[in-house]
Amino acid sequence: MSHQIELSGVNKYYGAYHALRDIDLKIRKGSFVALVGPSGCGKSTLLRSLAGLESISTGDLVIAGERMNNVPPRKRDLAMVFQSYALYPHMTVEQNLTYSLRIRGVKKAVAKRAAEEVAATTGLSNLLHRYPRELSGGQRQRVAMSRAIIRNPKAFLFDEPLSNLDAALRVHMRKEIRSLHDRLGATSVYVTHDQIEAMTMADHVVVMRHGVIEQQGAPLDLYDRPVNKFVAGFIGSPAMNFIPATPGPNGRSLTLDLGMPQIVALDRAVPQVGKLTVGLRPEHLRIVADQEAMVRLPVGVVESTGSTTYITSATVPEITVVVGERQALSHGQMIGLSFDPRHLHLFDQESERRIETTDA
Ligand SMILES: Nc1ncnc2c1ncn2[C@@H]1O[C@H](COP(=O)(O)OP(=O)(O)O)[C@@H](O)[C@H]1O
Ligand SMILES: [Mg+2]
């Protein structure tokens, strides 16, 4: 199976600064890949390296079977869709769409027809004669997309295209971009710092930190089996709870350190590896009657959005619990918590790497 884009052993230095470290990434034709990670982790640098706007220092970049390391951007046949829509303000939508074709010498009538076809796909048919200032944020975003589509590129590259939009429009555009990708049978690489965007839009999520790919895989695989504490804390909202712990003497329990020690019996074999960090997602904790409780905690803050209640414990570290029902709880009240031991994540406290547990 050939890949549309393939990076192997890619490093990028800005002077002495090591911005990309040993990047290996294969992007299948037709896939939607999200690059996600905190600000400054190298997402844009990686995307710009694909586009040829940055040169890579070492390694190989292959696009559609051709080595592209030294090929200039316009010959790579990729289309970049930016966050600031970068539309030409003095041109109509139609002129914005046809511009890239016209400068390549495509005949006016042919370019016009191409613009009309793309506009029909992206729902802009009635707006071809408008100027960018006469469009809403969502419509401008669609023009930016259309301008990329009209070039029929080998892949679409998106750099945080939705960050300027309000929350409701962002959710709408997420679906619109993904469905456009599907209809066109496109290959897309999408940069975002928003893990929800990455999880909901992509087939393949690449989590980066400090220029390194920490983990890549299908969205739910990252959620279910994060390889380290960083990925565990980055994927999922609200973030996973982390609790320092030590293995119990019988190999089937953990002592959690929540200010006071709490022993939790498990039906799983806990490796005897010294200090651990336990990871529990807020949505995997249940409030239960005292006799069923695995952990007992004092309530700190209770917040409700109507549909969902967020409970934060008055412990160090704080534990967050998310429940669907409303809860009449008051500050300082003790609650019992329970969880399915299969939802427990264990990390080595020192290396922060995932430790597997097994059914005991
Ligand atoms: N042209 C540049 N010269 C020097 N350092 C840069 C340059 N561009 C980006 N960087 C640095 O490289 C790191 C990664 O940047 P970037 O790829 O823009 O991160 P992200 O898009 O994930 O927020 C940052 O620390 C940034 O300061
Ligand atoms: Mg960026």
Describe the structure using short key phrases.
binds adenosine-5'-diphosphate; binds magnesium ion; single chain; OB fold (Dihydrolipoamide Acetyltransferase, E2P); alpha+beta; 360 residues; six-stranded antiparallel β-sheet; six-stranded mixed β-sheet; Rossmann fold
Describe it.
The protein has 8 helices and 23 strands. It has 2 domains: 3-234, Rossmann fold, CATH 3.40.50; 241-348, Nucleic acid-binding proteins (OB fold (Dihydrolipoamide Acetyltransferase, E2P), Beta Barrel), CATH 2.40.50. The two termini are 40 Å apart. It has helices at 43-51, 93-102, 108-122, 137-149, 167-184, 195-201, 219-224, 229-234; strands spanning 3-14, 17-28, 32-36, 58-63, 66-67, 78-81, 155-159, 188-192, 204-209, 212-217, 241-247, 253-258, 260-265, 268-269, 276-280, 286-288, 295-304, 309-313, 320-323, 334-338, 345-348, 354-355, 358-359. A hairpin with a 5-residue loop joins strand 21 and strand 22 (354-355). The protein has a 6-stranded mixed sheet, sandwiched between helices. Helix content is 23%, strand content 34%. The protein is elongated. It is of the alpha+beta class and 360 residues long. The structure holds adenosine-5'-diphosphate and magnesium ion. The site of magnesium ion (MG) has 2 residues, from helix 1. Magnesium ion is lined by residues 43-44.
